[in-house]
């Protein structure tokens, strides 16, 4: 299993719209082959969000990621997210993990 984890900071007042955008993006990710997507909000810091994307292996991740990058629906959602948060304010951190057990 290959796991990609993104961390975001989303202002509280924009979290409902953010979840709506994420819900649509998750549908597209799943359609394009991502095995699972999970979305979490930090219990103590409601502006901190965590997205976990799961793939069978690194090759599967690269294949699906390529399709995601080329999908105009994702581009539209990305642009809407930029409008929601303001240019330059959407800087997720990304980490990748290999399942060991």
Question: Could you characterize what this model shows?
Answer:
- The protein is α+β, with helices and mostly antiparallel strands and 101 residues long.
- It has a single domain, classed as Alpha-Beta Plaits (2-Layer Sandwich), CATH 3.30.70.
- Helix content is 44%, strand content 28%.
- The chain contains 3 helices and 4 strands.
- The chain has helices spanning 15-31, 58-70, 72-85, and strands spanning 2-9, 36-41, 48-55, 93-98.
- The protein has a 4-stranded antiparallel beta sheet.
- The protein is globular, with a radius of gyration of 14 Å.
- The termini are close together.
- The model has no long low-confidence stretch (mean pLDDT 93).
What shape does the CA trace take?
globular
In whole angstroms, the N-to-C terminal distance is 10 Å
Major β-sheet profile? 4 strands, antiparallel
What integer value in Å does the Rg equal? Answer: 14 Å
CATH topology: the name is Alpha-Beta Plaits
Helices and strands, in order, run as EHEEHHE
Count of distinct strands: 4
Strand content: 25-35%
- Tally of helical segments: 3
Count of all domains: 1
Percent of residues in helices: 40-55%
Please state the average pLDDT score.
93
**CATH top-level class:** Alpha Beta
Topology:
Blueprint: E1 2-9, H1 15-31, E2 36-41, E3 48-55, H2 58-70, H3 72-85, E4 93-98
Helix pairs in contact: 1-3
Key phrases:
101 residues, four-stranded antiparallel beta sheet
Structure summarized in a few sentences:
This protein is α+β, with helices and mostly antiparallel strands. The protein has helices at 15-31, 58-70, 72-85, and strands at residues 2-9, 36-41, 48-55, 93-98.
């Amino acid at each position: 299993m290959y796991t990609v984890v993104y961390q975001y900071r989303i202002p509280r007042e924009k979290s409902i719209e953010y979840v709506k955008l994420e819900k649509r993006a998750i549908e597209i990710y799943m359609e394009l082959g991502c095995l699972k997507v999970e979305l979490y909000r930090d219990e103590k810091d409601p502006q901190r969000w965590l997205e976990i994307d799961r793939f069978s292996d690194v090759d599967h991740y690269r294949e699906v990621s390529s399709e995601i990058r080329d999908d105009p629906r994702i581009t539209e959602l990305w642009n809407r997210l930029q409008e929601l948060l303001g240019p330059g304010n959407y800087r997720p951190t990304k980490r990748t993990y290999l399942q060991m057990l």
